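Hey, weird one. I pasted the DnaJ protein ERDJ3A sequence into the form twice and got a warning about non-standard characters only the second time. First submission, copied straight from the form history:
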Amino acid sequence: MEIRLSPFILIMASLFLFLLSEAKTMDPYKVLGVERNASQREIQKAFHKLSLQYHPDKNKKKSAQHKFEEINNAYEILSDEEKRKNFDLYGDEKGSPGFGPGYSGDQGGGHTFFTNEGRRQGQQNFKPQWQGTGGQGGSQSFSFSFGGPSGGSNPFGFGMEDIFSNFFGGGFKDEGNFGSHFKAQSGSKSSSIIKVVNKQVFKQEVVGQGVTWLLFPITSSLKGVDHVQSIIEDVASSLQGALKAGRIDCESESSLCKDLGIYPHRTPRIFVYSYIKSTDGSLVEYSGDVAVKSLKSFCQEHLPRFSRRVDLRQFDFSSNNGGRLPTLMLLSTKKDTPVIWRVLSGMYNKQFSFYDAEVTDVSDPTIKKLGVDALPAIVGWLSNGERHVLRTGINVKDLRSAIDDLSYLVNGFEKKNRKAASKPASKTQSDSAQNQIPLLTGFNFDSICGKNTPVCVIGAFRSSKARNKLEMILNMVSQKTLSRRQISAPGSKESISYSLVDATKQPSFLKAFDSAGFKSSDQILIAYKRRKEKFAAHLGEMTEEEVEKFIGSVLNGDITFTKTRQKPVLK
């Protein structure tokens, strides 16, 4: 196939090909300063170091901006195994014929090329041919001989229509997608680990779902997108299963970006949907260095914390679920709540009450009592109080597989709880649950004796004998109608709560009512109005009749309340 060109067009085409050849001599290995046998880890480290050095935000020189673009292009080639292989073989990341060194032809000094697929096929000679036109004055014109079959892909790996459309009037098909290739180069690198987030996805999958998100708003004019996105990809990959990553196009989703206050201007912005401040979650902007280590630490800090850290010596196993949600507890040797457990506590925070405790070994009597024979272990309580050891001696391969495995375990326990709840409880179980007086701790104080509870009746004891006596009396009194006001369901505005407190373990709590902490008494009854921070105490004889009389006087307003010395605090 021959196409005749005027000398002017030939000169322009030659100039373009020369410039293109110059552009393609860029060696990504030299740009990043790594050896040709460098590992992906070495390439990644070199890229991060150089991109920080030449980032436009930190280096305002024009040469730095050009260098930054070069670094990004080099990393895009070497971070992709296919592009890197093509470059090593052919001097071009697409496997297309290149103008790089080492590919000189063997016929008439023309250039030798390979086809798009990167396989060495029939060699193509590219050289101008002089042909007479037979026109007036014996003028000559030029033609390009491509040497390939008519209608097939041209040997350059790009179509001529985009570049020469003004000259050829659209006579070529862009089989090689040359123009689209450059558009793709200038856009952000796509990745399956980063999800496209629109208004609907944000509402349904991000807000209040208990899962931490790493969010990256972008616009077409934003600089440094590739670098920031590669960092986000690395962080999301290392925390896969614990964290999700999303990209928000603030041009197509401008109202969402403006409503959230995350619209980027000249430089990229990174946000984390965090559960540190509220159970519904909120956006927190990251302001540290754009580096994997620091961003990952920031994300880990903002993972959910719905699990309560407890001391097993003070944890009341008989009343941990409060008759509402089933309970899960992790027992491990970790000094802080493990990341896996924090993630699960976020995913299932509406279905379970989560706890975790640090333990030394399984020889602890409390651990033995729970039936645990190896650590780490997960113990669960159904809503009816029934205890189950879900798993012991947990082995973790990686974060994602651990989350998947334990999610399956938790889902199974939830099904068991629903099945147990659908069965009518036996009379013994019902009576036992109804007559339990919970032990007051710092973890259940708000739920048992909250500000919406008019009166909290608290029985303090210093011995097991005193505890048994108080529990029996309060059980009986709590079932009776003491006055014109009836005791209603716990949690209602007209309810009275009944609880016990171990005076030997909670001395500071009792000192809020008495400077000596009622040390001279083995058992004390306190009526506490938390909203008003007032109380009344009964130190007399502890019989059912006397206790009933005291509580009746409290409800009828026949007894004087005193201001507390300080705010009561429980461990």
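That's the output from the first submission. The warning seems to come from a hidden character in my clipboard, not from the data itself. The radius of gyration is 37 Å.
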